[in-house]
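Dear Dr. L.,

I hope this message finds you well. Following up on our conversation about the binding site, I have prepared a predicted three-dimensional model of the protein together with flavin-adenine dinucleotide. For your records, I am including the exact sequence and ligand specification that went into the calculation, followed by the structure tokens. Please feel free to forward this to your student if that is useful.
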Amino acid sequence: MSLSQNHFDVVVLGGGTAGELAAAELAHAGRDVALVENRLVGGESPYFACVPSKSLLLSARRGETWELAVARRDEVTGNLDDGRAVARLAEAGVTVLRGWGRITGPGVLDVDGARYRFTDLVVSTGSEPAVPAVEGLADVPVWTSDEALTVPDLPRRLVVLGGGPVGCEMAQVYAAFGSAVTVVEASGRLLTAEAPFAGEILADALRRMGVDLRLGAEPARVERGPGGLRLWLSDGGVLEADRVLVAAGRRPRVEGLGLETLGLAVQPGRPLPVDATCHVHPLGSSSFTTETRVLNVPRPGEPAETEMRLPNGMAPETVHPNGTSAGTHAVDAGTGHPNGTATATRQPDAVGAGTQHAEAMDGAVEPSEPADGGMGHPDVADGGMRHPDGVENVMGHPGGGGVWAAGDVTGVARTTHAARYQARVVVANVLGKHREADYRAIPRVVYTAPTVYAVGVSPVLAEQAGLRLISAGFDLSGTARAAVDADDRGRVELYADADRGLLVGAAAVGPYAEEWMSEIALAIRAETPLSLLTDVVHAFPTFGEAVEAPLRELAGRL
Ligand SMILES: Cc1cc2nc3c(=O)[nH]c(=O)nc-3n(C[C@H](O)[C@H](O)[C@H](O)COP(=O)(O)OP(=O)(O)OC[C@H]3O[C@@H](n4cnc5c(N)ncnc54)[C@H](O)[C@@H]3O)c2cc1C
Ligand SMILES: NC(=O)c1ccc[n+]([C@@H]2O[C@H](COP(=O)([O-])OP(=O)(O)OC[C@H]3O[C@@H](n4cnc5c(N)ncnc54)[C@H](O)[C@@H]3O)[C@@H](O)[C@H]2O)c1
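The resulting structure of the complex is given below.
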């Protein structure tokens, strides 16, 4: 039972991929949950990011017209109507609070002037585009991916700032439909975080489409010229454009949330630091770095982070040894919503009447983020335990409640699948079933043609972390499938940790690499011995056969 009429067991701040999933699963598990969303329930992925970009890329591959591509894109994004998503949450028993949510003190939430109370808080506020400080840029109309993926315009000349995943996908889309595209990338190559061969093959594919790549340059100044926009580059080049698309990275959304009132030292544009359970720590108290998250091994000179490791053979979800009786949390798991009706009459403190429930219940088209989209049945059992490590100090609740975070706001992995994974970790821990995230094998995919797939440790990361890698590669042109498909662009590289004798990373460029490389993600995550991997038989003729030779080579060298 709730402590009072305006009290929720859990408030989920931000209703994107992570928030939607966490809210639905916690409600399924019987918790009294409110989800606060300022824009569209579903967040970036179904409306402004993954789904529209993949739809446009597919239309480009099929050779459709721009008009057809835009119509198809708008259909799969449900014409930006989140009614169906809201209805699904209501059915799960989640109260959707529309507006900007802000924490005003321990256990207190303000949503546009209405006040609520809560025990646990899940921060899933996502990220926003980072706009570089370039003279004149703020004075001219620019696109971010939000506009590039929602408007019907096809600029004649498009300059894309940034050659990361967003910049490369968008450059390919607009070039395919006829825009004259220039990509300005500050570093010397595309996809700088990945193995160099990946960016090189992609650069070649984009150049063949007519994309002008200005690598190692950045804009120094932008201004309106007589016939459009003019950009002066750091390398002396000058570009004319009708539109500038900023794809220069994203910043975790941590400002204006009131997290400081919980004792959290929020830094603008910096991720909320979380531990392996996705529990938020005050800055400085967490020693986790991106490198150690991905590597799960200590960097030279760093103490081992045993929390992040999984003992051999142990499943990732384990019951915490201390977790069986720590809870004095005032939640009655038996009073959840049988079918979503219980939340419809909730009154906020500052609002006298009216419902705070989902607004738009009758949306037309289902945004097509695949699979359970946050509405799947919870994959964790209920429990009465609380997080054991001092959460009450942060929240000011003697005896219960924690601050958790999932998705882009954590700065970890920053993909939809990672957001969902972290949301599940949060759900388990809020329910008192200790679960730790393992980020060793989260795939990173750029859905261009050819596709770029990477997982685990990249050569760049290994160098930063001082890890000794042994690598072996194979060109897709060596497979029979490439001959059959008349498409021989691509390559696979596999990376093993020389000291541990294990496969720890991989990169592949090629048609549908995101599908046939999944087994490598499993091999990395499961720490499958190379001797076993070399015994796996692949169907003939497939691109998947390309991993066999490098696996044998690595096994022979280790
Ligand atoms: C162009 C582009 C393409 C991408 N393509 C892919 C892809 O193909 N595959 C992939 O895996 N990933 C892709 N990504 C990344 C993916 O979109 C994100 O990792 C994912 O959407 C993050 O989900 P999230 O729940 O953390 O945040 P979001 O989906 O951003 O949700 C956060 C939500 O919180 C709301 N919010 C924030 N603060 C408040 C507040 N105070 N009160 C109320 N509401 C608030 C926001 O309105 C938003 O709806 C892409 C990203 C971009 C930009
Ligand atoms: N398919 C996918 O999974 C997918 C697709 C798109 C985006 N995403 C996610 O979206 C996030 C954002 O992607 P992104 O590509 O915007 O960011 P990014 O940080 O990956 O890449 C940004 C690029 O912009 C460059 N840059 C920065 N400032 C610049 C400047 N002033 N001039 C020129 N270049 C500049 C950087 O060197 C970098 O290469 C990523 O975290 C990514 O994981 C995922």
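In brief: Confidence is low (pLDDT under 50) at residues 297-345, 349-399.

With kind regards,
A. P.
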